[in-house]
């Protein structure tokens, strides 16, 4: 009977240790993913300010998309680069993105927060835009995070 209790106790300890270690690995993976995604959002912001629209489009998944209220989806890297290039003559005075939440679940993640833009259009008119954003991320087969969908709400 004592042997059986020791065996059950040792087995339970082993199971709990494995579960704890698996959870720790998952948490470490989430922390690494969070760091990578945060860095990529910062890169996205810097590339927008630099007006490097080809590089911005490269951050998207092959079938990634931009969704803006009242507009058709802009889907695919080449189409995204072309869409963004339409803003090449706009002078970006301020472009801030403030993420407030990031939830990682395996190879997908959802990030949300607020944004603010202050730009000068080609005619010299000052434009301010602000609102909320949601970015869906996915990890590709190479292990790299890419934007699956970038959605804004003004």
TrEMBL record:
This is DUF4440 domain-containing protein. Residues 37-147 form the DUF4440 domain. Residues 1-24 form the signal peptide. The keyword Signal applies. It holds the Pfam family DUF4440. It comes from the Bacteria. InterPro entries: DUF4440, NTF2-like_dom_sf. Keywords: Signal.
């Amino acid at each position: 009977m004592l042997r059986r209790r020791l065996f059950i106790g040792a087995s339970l300890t082993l199971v709990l240790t494995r579960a704890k270690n698996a959870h720790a690995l998952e948490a470490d993976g989430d922390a690494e993913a969070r760091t990578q995604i945060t860095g990529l959002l910062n890169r996205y912001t810097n590339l927008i300010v630099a007006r490097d629209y080809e590089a911005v489009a490269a951050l998207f998944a092959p079938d990634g998309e931009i969704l803006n209220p009242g507009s058709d989806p802009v889907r695919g890297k080449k189409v995204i680069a072309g869409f963004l290039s339409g803003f090449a003559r706009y002078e970006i005075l301020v472009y801030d993105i403030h993420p407030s939440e990031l939830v990682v679940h395996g190879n997908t993640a959802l990030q949300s927060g607020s944004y603010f833009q202050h730009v000068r259009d080609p005619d010299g008119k000052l434009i301010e835009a602000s609102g909320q954003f949601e970015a869906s991320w996915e990890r590709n087969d190479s292990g790299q995070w890419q934007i699956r969908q970038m959605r804004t709400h003004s």
